Amino acid sequence: MDRLLNRIRANAWGSLTAIPELLGVAPTGKPQAELWMGAHPGAPSEVDRGDGPRSLVDLIAENPDGELGADTAARFGPRLPFLLKVLAAAEPLSLQVHPDAVQARHGFAEEEARGVPIRAPHRNYRDSSHKPEMICAIGDFEGLVGYREISQTLKLLDALDVPQLAPFARALHNPNHEAALRAATTHVLMLPARLRTSVVDAVAAACRRLAANGSPYADACAAVADLAERHPGDPGVAVALLLNHIRLREGEAVFLAAGMPHSYLHGVVVEILANSDNVLRCGLTDKHIDVGELLRVMAFRAGPVEILTPEDHDGAGEEVYATPVPDFRLSRLRATAAERPYVLDTTGPQILLCVRGTATARERDGDDLVLARGQSVYIRAGEPPVSLTVVGDDALVFRAGVPFA
């Protein structure tokens, strides 16, 4: 059992204060967007086993069976299959999608064969892994996730009454919904540069009008108008009109499958994902956009967003979020009556993150490891069972791992 030394990723959309407050340190005055916990080469956590800090990537590569367990190593190779983050958005992230496993392997191999440098700004695939992910709110959160039901989007477009969107709306009348969404998205992303500003300006003006008059789409329109102000002339603003606008409260979660378009607008979440950094962007950014590859990867499926809440795993109080992928499992642990400890199975690798209160992790015949707010611990597969005591009325610990076999 090892205390983790984690890295913070900077990004312009990051909060100035949320991650420093979590860690109990003074703000730097610069945006701090993500706290990474795990073994991704881009920002690996470190542990100190008596010979100085060492990268978790290197330790796992040297002894995958010993760190991950033979079953996890056989299924995923010599790499931790998941990555845990705290993501703190003060401003909207880019509108983006992530590839599935086949797309990621093909795309990575193709760019490797062409000799595209791994850090080149125009590179699409940084690794060969898919990137399903789940976010869990630790406070109020706002985002755009997945395509809205087409019938609802057509009602919104009627209410907006923007003549420049007429071809966009006509595309959505196709009874083949996948083809309709593909055509509408393609139409917007391929707008000639000379038309983009006028279209986005018209969308923004109409959205401000609906946001102010109590429309059923007021929240979504307010979000799109804000995006237009931040990203003038960006066709991603019009794509955002197609997406579900969601708000999450503390403890609510959303699973994002491969190909699902999304943008996180504001708030702090715990995010768990397959151990990948593959992102294809479709707007609201100055970074590289490969429209052809994006349209190949994007899943053109419409429907409401399923808001997840955790369920008691076995009557012992551990609350588990259902996930349909083998790469990760996420649960939360809160203080129990009389501070009764949880006994954690250690058949696979896992990470514990304390976001409120304190927690004490104890191995049989081992030392106690106390976690304060913002601290985390890595547990190797095959260690003796760990007991975890969570202390504080509002205390909260997240447990990330691999689904039990």
Task: Write a structural description.
The protein has 405 residues and is an alpha+beta fold. It has helices at 18-23, 56-62, 64-68, 70-76, 101-113, 150-160, 166-171, 177-189, 193-212, 218-230, 236-240, 291-297, and strands at residues 2-3, 7-9, 34-38, 46-48, 53-55, 82-89, 95-97, 133-147, 243-248, 253-256, 262-274, 280-283, 311-312, 319-321, 329-334, 342-344, 350-363, 368-371, 376-379, 386-401. It folds into 3 domains: 2-144 and 248-282, Jelly Rolls (Sandwich), CATH 2.60.120; 151-241, no CATH class; 329-401, Jelly Rolls, CATH 2.60.120.10. It contains 12 helices and 20 strands. The chain is globular, with a radius of gyration of 22 Å. The two termini are 22 Å apart.
Secondary structure class reads alpha+beta
Helix content: 25-40%
The CATH architecture designation of the largest domain is Sandwich
Name the quaternary structure.
single chain
The poorly predicted ranges are none
Tell me, what's the shape?
Answer: globular
Quickly name the level 1 CATH class of the largest domain. Answer: Mainly Beta
Percentage of β-strand residues:
25-35%
Largest sheet: 9 strands, antiparallel
Strands, total number: 20
Q: Determine the CATH topology of the largest domain.
A: Jelly Rolls
Distance between the termini: 22 Å
Number of domains: 3
Alpha plus pi helix count: 12
> Mean of the pLDDT scores?
95
Q: Can you tell me the CATH superfamily of the largest domain?
A: Jelly Rolls
